[in-house]
Amino acid sequence: MEEITAPPRFRQGSGRLCLDYLRTLRYRGTPRATEELADPAALMAWVRQCGPAVEGPRSAPGPGPADVLAARALREAAYTLVTAAVAAGAAVAPAPAVRARLNRAAAADVPVPHLAPDGAVRHRAEDPVRAVLALVARDALDLVASPALLPRVHACASPTCGALFLDHSRPGTRRWCSMDTCGNQSKKSSFRSAGRR
């Protein structure tokens, strides 16, 4: 019997871990804006789906409500930093609170790789959630300090999406965060509009 797996809960494929994390406020800037980091279970699910597979001590407590609030605040700080750098085309000096939040998160211990007895490489961290969020913060800092990449960070052309993505296409003219979702929806909409004429 074939095992049925659930579809991924969170959107990925933006081209950078930090940009995937920004997508946890889905449909940002639209009336349909939806908070995907709604509770500790959702935060843990994002870490498991989008970060490296991280093992923690069996006795380590999972994230709590305060961790969720801190994770959302980190996301908004990263969003502020990335969008300001993209608009300026270069790294910018963010507000002290934004800088402090990102620096604090980036300073946390990151997952450490180790070789398991079966030969597989796994990652360990005392606090898997904090460790993966440190990777997110470091990725955001690296992205805004990369002048060659900033011009390739685009907002999805779909007026109902709000996601940012890193355009890896050769000409750098990609319009949608995903051709499978936003791109196809736009083409269907255009086709229906043309059919009504």
From TrEMBL:
Domain of life: Bacteria
Coiled-coil region(s): none
Domain Zinc finger CGNR: from-to ranges: 152-193
Identification of the protein by name: Zinc finger CGNR domain-containing protein
Source organism of the structure: Actinacidiphila bryophytorum
